[in-house]
Amino acid sequence: MEHHRFLKPDLARLIAREHGTPCYVYDQAVLEAQADAMLGFPNAYGLTVRFAMKACPNAAILRVFLAKGLHFDASSGWEVRRATLAGVPADRISLSSQELPDDVVELLRQGVHVNACSLLQLERIGKALPGHEVGLRFNPGRGSGGTGKTNVGGPDSSFGIWHEWADRARDIAEAHRLKVVRIHTHIGSGSDPAVWQEVSEASLALVGRFPTVATLNLGGGYKVARVASEKGTDPAVIGVPVRAAFEKFAQADGRRLRLEIEPGTFLVANAGAVLAKVQDVVSTGAREFLKLDSGMTEILRPSLYGSQHPVHLYPETPRGGEREYVVVGHCCESGDLISCAPGEPETLAPRRLPEAAAGDLCVIGGAGAYCAGMSTKNYNSFPEAPEVLVNRDGRATLIRRRQTLAQVVQNETPAAGP
Q1: Cβ atoms of 153 and 144 closer than 8 Å
Q2: How far apart, in whole angstroms, are the C-alpha atoms of residue 212 and residue 134?
Q3: 0.90 cut: is pTM over it?
Q4: pLDDT value of residue 189
Q5: For this structure, is 332 an active site residue?
Q6: Of 190, 226, 236, which Cα lies nearest the Cα of 368?
Q7: DSSP assignment, residue 151?
Q8: Are 209 and 166 a contacting pair, CB within 8 Å?
Q9: Are the C-beta atoms of residues 351 and 327 closer than 8 Å to each other?
Q10: If you average pLDDT over every residue of the chain, what do you get?
């Protein structure tokens, strides 16, 4: 069984001794290499790379990307404030949210770039700050994602202003003297590169209807190969036809548009892993189960989407053989699975691993994106797991402490009654 790409057995054992399990572990060198790959995205007239911070919002991760020159995409007012607490300047944050925060006027005045994601949001901004600059997020009419749950474009998605309502959006903007400076579209996470390129063309057509737009944001959603059977997206390849489309638009329209992209998964997925421990090995006669001290409380994606994550077992004592195990989590929930079939969260899919015993360490790869930031933490009252960053010199630094039981219950109030 091969080792994880950066969390090798010796480092895994060191982190387990110092910080316990389960524990998230990130590698700074991988984070920076992925940032460099996106900063090299082909473009015609300038590029802004925004990290979709919902993928992994820890302040230490944000600071790594800030130092690399990245900007940031926030999906709520809370994320905006979290980014500013981490030291991100307001003018390097863009907000595209299903709901406008109550302090949106203050955020706009501070320099946060806000994209109106519905006609009502646009109306609210116009009434509050007539004459201000604003962006518009459109649903381009087509989407693509790794699953139906990650598709954020097309008639079945609530994200963005429906593209056929562009004239209505323009009328609202003109009524409040708003200057539309940015068009934003997004089709989904794990999207098909071909569909992404097609939607890019449609997005340029939307730009043509707003003469003051200087930036086109094409979102993120680039496929990442977490396991060998998956094929990832090469940004250097998919960006070439998009660059050509921007050049063609400039020749026809006269505007040299700046390109914005919002990668999340691409930047952090394979830069993170969950370090867990085998708690038990049980058999039903038909199947053998590997029970971990982690699960949907740290990695929800398999249970939610049927997502695939590589599993590496580091036996305390080499036993020589291999076995087929269904890897499951520690929650009292039948859907708490790590090894399920691709896209089928309810279908068990055994993994062939070294013969295991209680106490062995287990590394679940591809866990840097939408894991720590999207989990069922505190389900069964399990505390939030710590996070560790492996610096360029190989040192493992704690970047979030393990939650205590007191912190789990601290916001509960005394029950009413006698």
Answers
A1: yes
A2: 11
A3: yes
A4: 47
A5: yes
A6: 226
A7: B
A8: yes
A9: yes
A10: 92
CATH superfamily of 9-24+269-403: Lyase, Ornithine Decarboxylase; Chain A, domain 1 (2.40.37.10)
Residue among 6, 87, 15, 103 nearest 53 (CA) = 87
Which tokens go with 322?
């291999």
- Segment 35-65, tens digit of pLDDT: 999 999 999 999 999 999 999 999 999 999 9
> pLDDT band for position 197 (50/70/90)?
low
Q: Please give the share of the chain, as a percent, with pLDDT higher than 90.
A: 80
Count Cα neighbours of 415 within 13 Å in the Cβ-side half-sphere: 2
Torsion region of 101: left, alpha or beta (phi above 0 gives left; psi -120 to 50 gives alpha): beta
Are 9-24+269-403 and 97-263 equal in CATH topology? no
Report the residue count for the chain.
418
CA distance linking residue 52 with residue 266, whole number of Å: 10
Q: Give residues with Cβ within 8 angstroms of 132, minimum separation 6.
A: 108, 125, 178, 179
Amino acid in position 193: P
Strand partners, 314: 361
- Dist CA 315 CA 290 (whole Å): 13
Give pLDDT tens digits for 367-386. 999 999 999 999 999 999 99
Domain locations along the chain: 9-24+269-403, 97-263
Q: What is the pLDDT of residue 195?
A: 64
Domain 97-263: which topology?
TIM Barrel (3.20.20)
| CA 292 and chain centroid, separation | 24
Which spans in 130-259 are helix H? 166-175, 193-207, 235-253
Phi first, then psi: what are they for 270, rounded to 5°? -85, 5
Task: Out of 23, 117, 332, 340, pick the active-site residue.
Answer: 332
Question: What distance in Å separates the CA atoms of residue 39 and residue 375, rounded to the nearest whole number?
Answer: 29
Q: H-helix or E-strand containing 37? A: helix 28-39
At 364, the pLDDT band (50, 70, 90 cuts) reads very high
User: How many Å separate Cα 279 from the centre of its chain?
Assistant: 29
201: number of CA atoms within 13 Å, CB side? Answer: 9
Q: At 35, list the tokens.
A: 């940032």
Burial of residue 97 (CB within 10 Å: 0-12, 13-18, 19+) is buried
Question: Is the bond preceding 22 in cis, omega lying within 30 degrees of 0?
Answer: yes
